[in-house]
Design a protein that fits this description.
alpha/beta; Molybdenum Cofactor Biosythetic Enzyme, Chain A; six-stranded mixed β-sheet; 7 helices; 19% strand; globular
Length: 176
């Protein structure tokens, strides 16, 4: 790590306040029926963030629905108590996968390296199928937003190896 990166990271907040949104129509519909759907990816996101010393202020299960996702993004960028958000799921290539298209217009700046590194790390584990991942990250209103695939393995790669080590650094610069 370069000296300037070390200096920047030393001035970054140590613990961030996160919002976590699990984008899954099937799980959302089960929840609406009064069921308690299993959410291994959401559990992993929350566990990894807390293990890294961050706070999860809330976690919501939402449908793959443009209005619901837009509302979620607005709730993050307008909340002074939040520093970052993770949108987990809805990043594939099917017609219902709209998380990327819905979140992207809100980003002031994108971080192409996030998706590039995620696909590189995924490729090492799953091979050429990694090219179908559309993971993205960016900043909006001084907050870091991450859109990651919904599989537990993708969560581990993105949260443990990329988000936890860099989110504070990203937020520091986004607020300058």
């Amino acid at each position: 790590m370069s000296e300037s990166t070390k200096t920047h990271k030393s001035h970054a907040p140590k613990a961030l306040n996160f919002a976590v949104f699990i984008c899954s129509t099937s799980r959302y519909e089960a929840l609406q029926k009064g069921e308690t759907p299993a959410d291994p990816s959401g559990d992993a996101v929350e566990s990894l963030l807390k293990k890294a010393g961050h706070n999860v202020l809330f976690r919501r299960l939402i449908a793959d629905d443009k209005e619901m996702i837009e509302h979620a993004v607005k709730s993050v960028i307008n909340n002074v108590g939040l520093d970052a958000a993770i949108f987990c799921g809805g990043t594939g290539v099917t017609q219902r996968d709209i998380t990327i298209e819905t979140v992207s217009p809100f980003l002031d700046k994108t971080l192409p390296g996030f998706g590039e590194l995620f696909r590189h790390l995924s490729y090492k584990q799953i091979g050429s199928a990694a090219l179908m991942s559309r993971a993205i990250a960016g900043v909006a209103n001084g907050k870091a937003l991450f859109c990651i695939p919904g599989s537990p393995n993708a969560v581990r790669i993105s949260v443990e190896l990329l988000i936890c080590p860099e989110a504070s650094h990203i937020v520091k610069h986004a607020r300058e």
